[in-house]
Amino acid sequence: MSYSVGQVAAFAGVTVRTLHHYDRAGILSPSGRSHTGYRLYGDADLARLQQILFYRELGFSLDEITAILNDPQANALEHLRSRQRELSEEITRLQRLAEVAERAIEVQQTGVSLTPQERFDVFGEITFDLSYATEAQLKWADSAGQREAMARAAAHNKEDWRQLMAEAAAWRGDLLTAFDADEPGDGERAMDLAEEHRRHVTRWFTSCPPDMHRRIADDFAADPRAFALVVPPSQQRPGLAAYLCKAVHANAARRTHPDPLEDR
Questions:
Q1: Which residues pair with 33 in a beta bridge?
Q2: pLDDT of 33-88, one tens digit each?
Q3: How far is the C-alpha of 41 from the C-alpha of 5, rounded, in Å?
Q4: Is the confidence at residue 118, as pLDDT, over 60?
Q5: To 5 degrees, how large is the angle CA 144–CA 218–CA 156?
Q6: Does the reported pTM lie above 0.70?
Q7: Comparing C-alpha atoms, which of 162, 190, 196 is closest to residue 176?
Q8: Is the separation of the CB atoms in 30 and 5 below 8 Å?
Q9: Residue-range domains of the chain with CATH
């Protein structure tokens, strides 16, 4: 029995345009034509369309589906297992993202409500990139320190934020002064500034041991969005993020392996 393109589209829940596209792509060409030239699909065509739609639902590309259906040697089971693994990973990622959204909602509900002017007065040029914040939440989702930092941030009132940002601005000025004066990144002044930043994080957000501080500094050096949280783009200098990262690593090493002469 043969079916017109309109009938097949209705059966399968797809558009006629989709069937035309499949025909042009060579993945599903009708096995017949009417005497007037219209496409006619047989039972084998419908079975193939069912397979195509099944793989499409699983997220396979048309090229991947074509390879699976046209190659008798193709290992469809292995393709399905691979896709199952990918889907499982995506499900896990989406579940964690949903948890991030839930925590963000909690922060919004319990945090300080600021007007745009108040937000600028408090944070100035420091901006919070939502894409980075979301990635950071996913990256540190299993960290007790991240959970504590979020909870404490949500508990800060407007004056807390003003004091926090004032401290950060003063520290940032000292960092820029040291950098512009060509003070070495692993020198005493730079390490002291790194230690000041570590204590700032501990004071306002969460306990920040040297290993954690190293990871934070690595993010500063690797991701401009992270570094913009401590130094706005208008104040940044080429090499400044790497300079701070070097200072943090040097300070962490100093704290992990203190100079015995310092205790004399």
A1: 39
A2: 988 888 999 999 999 999 999 989 888 889 889 888 887 666 777 778 888 888 88
A3: 7
A4: no
A5: 45
A6: no
A7: 190
A8: yes
A9: 3-74 (1.10.1660.10), 118-263 (1.10.490.50)
Instruction: Supply 41's token pair.
Output: 């699909």
Contact 220, 227 (CB under 8 A): yes
Please state, in angstroms and rounded to a whole number, the distance separating the CA atoms of residues 101 and 108: 10
Q: Which residue has the tokens 């310092």?
A: 262
**43-46 contacts, C-beta under 8 A, 24 or more apart:** 43/1, 45/8, 46/3, 46/8, 46/11, 46/12
Q: Which of 216, 180, 179 is nearest to 198 (CA)?
A: 216
**Radius of gyration of the chain, Cα coordinates, nearest whole angstrom:** 29
Q: In this model, does residue 230 exceed pLDDT 60?
A: yes
Please report, for residues 32, 180, 188, 198, the alpha-carbon distance to residue 195 in angstroms, rounded to integers and kept in the order given: 77, 19, 10, 5
How far, in Å, are 131, 173, 263 from residue 260 at the CA level? Answer: 44, 31, 6
| Stretch 227-232: mean pLDDT | 88
Alpha-helical segments (H) within the chain: 5-12, 16-25, 43-57, 62-70, 76-110, 116-123, 130-139, 144-155, 158-180, 188-204, 210-222, 224-227, 240-256
Report H helices in 186-239: 188-204, 210-222, 224-227
- pLDDT for position 22: 93
Classify 15 as helix, strand or coil.
coil
Residue recorded with tokens 């306002």: 204
